[in-house]
Amino acid sequence: MLNRKSTFTQNIENQKGQVALFVALIFQVLFLFFAMVINVGLLVHHKINLQNSVDLAAYYGAMKQAEGMNTIAHVNYQIRQSWKLLAWRYRMLGSAGDFKEHPFNKFYKNLQGGDEDGINPAKQDFYDAPSFCITYIPFKPMPPAESTCRDIATKSGIKLFDVPQVFIDLPNISGKVRGLSQLLLNNAIDRCQLIGGFNYTLLGGFVVAFNIDQGNRMLLMSYLSRAMSPSSPQDDFFDIDGQSVHDGIEKTLRNNLTSANNTSDLKFQVYNSLGHSNCNSSGVDKGSPAKWLVPIKTIPAFNYIDNNCDSNSIGPQGRMLDSSQGNWPRYSRTAGSPFFEQIKELAPFIGIRNPLSDIYNYSIGVEKNPWCMAYVGVSATSQPKIPFSPFGSITLKARAFYKPFGGRVGPWYYNRWPSGAAGAKGSTGSPDERLDPNLPPRIHDVANVGDPKDPTRAANYSRFVGDKFGLKSRRVMYQYGKSIFGLDPNWKVTNEDSTFTDTLNGQTDFSDGAPNFDHWNHLPFKFADRGASLDILAWNDKQDQPSRMRELELAAVLPDAFDMAYYSIEPDFYHNYYVRLRDGFLKGPGAAFASEKELLGDIGMHRGFNQGGVNYDRFSVKNQFEVVKKSAHLSSTVDFASKLTYISQNWEHALTGWAPINLLNYALDTNKFGKCAARPLGADNNDPRPANPGNCVVGGTTGYSVKMVSSDYLRSNDLNLGGEGVNGPLLNPPPNEEEF
């Protein structure tokens, strides 16, 4: 009988393939989960890549904004230095010849005077508005034993100030004003009649040279700001190399995208906040900057000493330096009289021109509208091809906003800035609320010049935050007065009658030594001519070398405590910005500027001159410090260490920008602030290797840095940007998410 298994037993033995069947069934589910993981992973990867790329693109755009703003900030500071030079020349050179009230003691036995700070209340007018008089020994070529400036204190003051004349049309400029010193060598009565004309033309030359210098710099800032501020936020804008920022943003974006994101389906937008209609350059006057910069037009005033000469007496007389013929020197008002032609040419450039926006009207630079915030937004959408995607292509979107921060274009004129349209004309406040209380009154309308007797109309500036005296300080006058007279080692007063020692046996000193009137022969027009030196400082033309007076002038413009608090100062402007402007911007969007004007460097630049291993074409703020430090004359006559302590003696002190402890701690690192532990390899003047912003690799910084900013912050209606208690929204908020 056969041994047969039951059907039940057979069925059990035949279940060996059921696991494989189960695996086959569940594999589809597992594969689906696997595909989902791959899908989500790739989706996240491409999204992160898109966001990172957009971040970098927006950072690039904001970085280019920061470079432009840093350039503008330093050019604005150059105007501040030019103003300081003018104020110093007016007050220090023009008052040092006084023997009665000036604090520098020129007598051996007279104890009057001193170097205490403040002013002498009994002679308030002299300190408020000294009459400019420079025809005194030791200036050359002055006749021996003669000074016409011994007693100018009683001929000074705001009582001489009047409303200035306004010019509409200007004559052509011939540039032949200088070459005047020979006229002083006539006989005594004739010379008396020349004194007023000489003081007028020399002071007028200083004033007009300042307005040419600041005007050319204002025009450069206008071109720079306009290139950064197109008529629409979506339009292209340009960097200081003259390159398209839009192109740079696109290249940055695409070069960082994955191949799946970087397809023909990629779409991106750029939002330049400075192109907003409330902040761009549309509709502003020709030659004016974009709306986010507001010019600080002022109305200063100057006095000078004229003479009343007759056969019996010679009497000094104070006059306001003015364009109106009634304020011309007494003996220079008719055709054919001494200095008539020179004054006729100078006078229109001393007055105010219509329209007020004319770049050659008096200006202290620009202030930045805080309600026009600089930032760049970038948004992008992509449709990466992702394997196993059940819905086909998926659209990814990323946005980012980055802004320059931490830099300072310069101080506002007043301490508050209204929000909205009310702030279109700039900061507001009372005269007591000026951030620099020593600046001349601001003028928005030539028909309204304010109080013509305002003592702050006399050129001056604050040396530190809260300074009320500026160059009125007796201490400052003493230190520089001593240094001016010390330029001539042969100068000497032997008695209380102020008789000068005649070291040349009655002969006039025609040497090239300082102080010397001829060292300003290139002012007011010649220095800025096409192909000229571009040097506004004193220069010895006969020897073709720097004048020793130049050392005093550089000491006067060095960064001080006020400057370092309110300006972003670039120690090496030439290597970091000048070259890029010259070789890039002025051959592109700034070509019209280059066809009209010369690009000016820092004060002290002298084109085409080399001496002592210093290339004066590349002269920058750091070189200003070097000249003052190396000056044996200044070290022996000016006490910077204990008297003029507001003046910085190290270029590193200008490194007052944002200096964090590290990337995770944004608190101020006091070990870096105002210090530099390592300079770049190319820091030497003749080293061709690249320079570094701030002239420092390890240590403090200067100018604007860049950071991310949220769109919620940019849309806030309660930003505190206009000073204490002044809140409001930006004039240039970002577009809605649906639009951007």
From TrEMBL:
Name the keywords, alphabetized: Membrane, Transmembrane, Transmembrane helix
Q: Where is the composition biased (Low complexity)?
A: 421-430
Q: Where is the signal peptide?
A: none
Family annotation (Pfam families): Tad
**What are the residue boundaries of the Putative Flp pilus-assembly TadG-like N-terminal domain, all occurrences included?**
17-63
Bilayer-crossing regions: 21-44
Q: Which domain of life is it from?
A: Bacteria
Annotated segments matching region Disordered: 421-452
Q: What is this protein called?
A: Tad domain-containing protein
Q: From what organism does this protein derive?
A: Bdellovibrio reynosensis
